[in-house]
Amino acid sequence: MPTLLDLDPDHCRAVLASLCQCGPAQDARPFLYDMRRWCVSPTRPDHCAVIDALLREGKAAEAYEVVAKQMDADGVAPGLPEFERMLRALSAGREFDAVEEVFDEMLLRGLVPEVGVYNVYVGALCGKGDLAGARQMAACMERGSCPPDVRAFGVVVAGYMVNWWGYAACPVKASFGMEETFPFPVKFL
C-alpha cells in the first residue's frame, strides 16, 4: 500500500480511483479503511467506485460487505441504487439466498423498492424455482402502489416457462399460471 505524504482528500480520492480502475479491487477496499484512519471521510462516490471494482472482478459478497457495513461505518447510508446493483450482481451469479438477504436488509433499512428492484427480486425468485414466492411478490407490488410493469410480467412468464415441467412445451398452460399471478391489468409503459 502506498504511503501518502500529503493527506489531501483530493489526492486520496485520486489514489483510490486509480486503484479501482487499474489495480485489483482487493487493494482498493483496504484503502477506504486507510482513508478513514487518515481522517479523510470516504464519500458515496468513493464507496461506489470500490463496489464497481469488486463487482467487475466477480466479488459480489465482498461488494455487499462494503454496502452493508463499510458505508455505514463511514457515515454514508447506502441507498436504493447500491442495493439494486447488489441484487443484480447476486442474481446474475445465481446466489439466490444472498438476493433474499440483501432484499430483506434493504427493507429493514426502510428503503422502498421501485419496480426495477422488484423485477430483479422476482426474477431471482423465479430463477430459484420459487414461483409461489414470485406470485406473492407480484401481489405485494400491486398492494404497495408499485404495480408490476411489462418487464415483471416477462420475468414471471419466463419463470413459469422454465420451472414448470411441460410449460415450455405448452405456453397455454403457462398463461393460466400467469392469470393467477397477475389477476390485474399490467402497465405496458
Count of β-strands: 0
Q: For the report, how would you describe the main beta sheet? A: none
Helix fraction by DSSP (H/I, runs of at least 4):
55-70%
Oligomer designation: single chain
Our Rg estimate from Cα atoms comes to 20 Å
Structural class: mainly alpha
Strand content: under 5%
Low-pLDDT windows of residues: 166-170
Label the overall shape.
Answer: elongated
- End-to-end gap: 50 Å
Mean pLDDT: 80
SSE order:
HHHHHHHHHH
Counting H and I runs of at least 4 residues, what is the number of helices?
10
Describe the structure.
The chain is mainly alpha-helical and 189 residues long. It has 10 helices and no strands. It has helices spanning 9-22, 25-37, 44-56, 60-73, 80-92, 96-108, 115-128, 131-143, 150-163, 171-181. Helix 1 runs antiparallel to helix 2 (25-37). The N and C termini lie far apart (50 Å).
How would you concisely characterize the structure shown here?
The chain has 189 residues and is mostly helical.
Topology:
Elements: H1 9-22, H2 25-37, H3 44-56, H4 60-73, H5 80-92, H6 96-108, H7 115-128, H8 131-143, H9 150-163, H10 171-181
Helix pairs in contact: 1-2, 1-3, 2-3, 3-4, 4-5, 5-6, 5-7, 6-7, 7-8, 7-9, 8-9, 9-10
Keywords:
single chain, 189 residues, mainly alpha, 0% strand
